[in-house]
Amino acid sequence: MSSNVGLSTPRGSGTSGYVQRNLSLLKPRAAGVGVPYSLDASKAPKVRKPDQEILNHDRLRDIEVKVLELREKLEDEEVDDETIDEQCDQLRGKLTKDMERERQRPSGGPRRVDGKGLKSYQVHELAEAKERESDRLRRALGLKQSEIPEDGEHPMARQEKRRREREIVQEKDGAAEGA
Fold this sequence. Notes:
Layout: H1 52-76, H2 81-104, H3 123-141, H4 155-178
Helix pairs in contact: 1-2
Domain CWF21: 55-100
Organism: Cladophialophora chaetospira
Region (Disordered): 75-179
């Protein structure tokens, strides 16, 4: 029993006391069964862009973790502090250069495109992987970036809007000729 739901004791009730959600009343779609979902841009799912500051912070954090691992290893070997600092700075510089080189690549670097191996809480990494995967698919299909709507409006919705506008113009022209 959790959150005061269910029987305080199921003893003598003839049940186990387990409470289930009632799925018999589902909200029907406004358009009806079999009708495709609306292509209205206001109801379209919003695509969130990955925050580059957070991604950069995570990459810098990974660099610092590797530097601290090196520092601990050298301290266990009882190397003097000046040598430790020097080697840590060299590793930090090398890893930072590698990170910059990765960022300068047009493909986005050697990171995986599919986002496998990422945890559910790595939202920005997942969004970045999805963006790269979409870009890869777009290039494979031969689509141009300009063909992809910036406002998130579906191309079919734009066609439908143009068709309605033409019908309205034709009705006005027909009403003007009849008058």
